[in-house]
Amino acid sequence: MEWRILMICVQFLSVVSSFGTQRPGKSSLFHPSTQLHAKPNVKLALFSPCKINLFLRIIRKREDGFHDLASLFQAIGFGDTLELTILEGADADEFTCNMEGVPVDQTNLVLRALTLMREKTGNHNTYFYANLIKECPAQAGLGGGSANAATAMFGANELMGNPATLEEMVEWSADLGSDITFFLSRGTAYCTGRGEIMTPIDPPIEASTKLVIVKPNVGLSTPTVFKSLEYDKLSDLDPENLLQQFMEESENVAMVDESAFVNDLEPPAFKNLPELMKLKEDLQKVKGFQHVMMSGSGTSIFCIGTPADAEAFEKQFSYRDDLQVFFAEFIN
Known about the structure:
Elements: H1 6-10, E1 13-17, E2 20-22, H2 26-30, E3 43-61, E4 67-87, E5 94-97, H3 109-121, E6 127-133, H4 144-159, H5 166-173, E7 188-192, E8 197-200, E9 210-216, H6 222-227, H7 239-248, H8 266-272, H9 274-284, E10 289-294, E11 301-305, H10 310-318, E12 323-329
């Protein structure tokens, strides 16, 4: 099985050192150096992409309190940037973030990922300065925090001289969260279990599919949504059949039947925020959008396609004070 680091192969990796700025070719991005020595004078700037769930089935509640799910994850060209460098002579990591409200203590997944990499690789005396430039809003259902953790793992591994393999990082990532594993894929993956069991889709779904993300300023926590689940109202569609439908139209997702775009977390989210259902209904009326659905546990709504009347769309949605609108595309 071939694993590739998503956040690196998609957008950019800029390397700033005492010798200037370089942009490595794709071969170096896919195949990091195997030299086992640290790079203390190097600063990495890594793109940390978000994801959407093209379908999300909740299968059952487990005895440990978690839920078994089946979902098709797709990476998109909207996300954050993580700047990372080794701190020489330090005895602790330093972490900063531009977005107000983001924790900068050990509860943040970036710092937890750096700690995990030290523990797993045995580089106990290597500490980092991390600066997270956040674009992805919180409580969006876009996996921003999980992507940041995966990006931190990759960057730390690079700066420490690549002591870990991709397979090892995939295994370790489950210690941090359920869907972090996805961000070590090629861009499209079928995720089961708690979300940590990943089957890469190869070839991935066609890149460059256009979409619009509409995020209300109000958010919902994932536990809040799950607490409102009504198990007798879950979809009974077979996730394997849903996956097959997307694979048959992997070059043009817009052609997938509307019934395959199912998210079992929409009803409980809409129950908590009725205005979210109204937003989805309004977006479904926009000409040019082929499919409209909530991503993850919300509260982002993704719309596949582009609005036929861009000016009218901006007036109705982009100019609203209670919404954030992001234009993106599929990446792999």
